[in-house]
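Before a colleague's protein record goes any further, I have to sign it off. Would you go through it and say whether the fold makes sense for this chain? Take the sequence as given and treat only the tokens as open to question. The record follows directly below this note.
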Amino acid sequence: MKILVTGIAGFIGSHTADALLKRGDQVVGIDNFNDYYDPKIKEDRIKRLQKSYQFSLYRTDISDYTAVEKIVRKEKPDKICHLAAQAGVRYSLENPFVYLKSNIDGTLVMLETARHNNIKDFIYASSSSVYGGNKKLPFSEEDRVDAPISLYATTKKANELMAHTYHKLFGLNTTGLRFFTVYGPYGRPDMALFIFTKNILENRPIEIFNRGKMKRDFTYVDDIVSGIIASLDKSYPHEIFNLGNSNTVDLMYFIERIEKE
């Protein structure tokens, strides 16, 4: 298969592309290499992928419809794996328009591109943040997700609604994957694992909220990638899946484990 992967230089995108290339698929990658965190990290991720002759890279923004349409017409991918998004819940409080451009406009561009180029399967990244303040555990895909508590979560819920609409109106097969907290090699430096580890190594205090009384579902990136590829290998008409470890961990226990290591 030839797969178009957006957010190719991102944490999950680069791991997904690596796995696809290793099994013999062709990968077309799009990324704008923004400076939300050090772009050098993104360049390092891409270097691993460029060793394969089956890999093509385009440095452009997914919100640029003309550029994306041109790429898709040239490459003619079989499926789209849309992983690009502006991440970070706290960052959205200070930079709301960035989230609308990337997560709303960008997703619309990808949906429209799929529609007009006869691409039948659209797999996209949602987020466990859509569950908002839901206190029922474990989360289920059947739970209500109409009360997000961050702009980031709002954009991800909007993505799910947009995908649903394109399935109903145009018959596009859409699969949404609600990622939980992902960790692993080449992770984002703003992720809890790396922030906690850095502070511990530097003997600096760790900032925690709610007195540390919270739980997170930590999922290794290879497991997330396995779920993404399994979805790419199917053609679900319209589905949303939770993609996580299904085992929440107390935050303070998580920090203690890092300290012991």
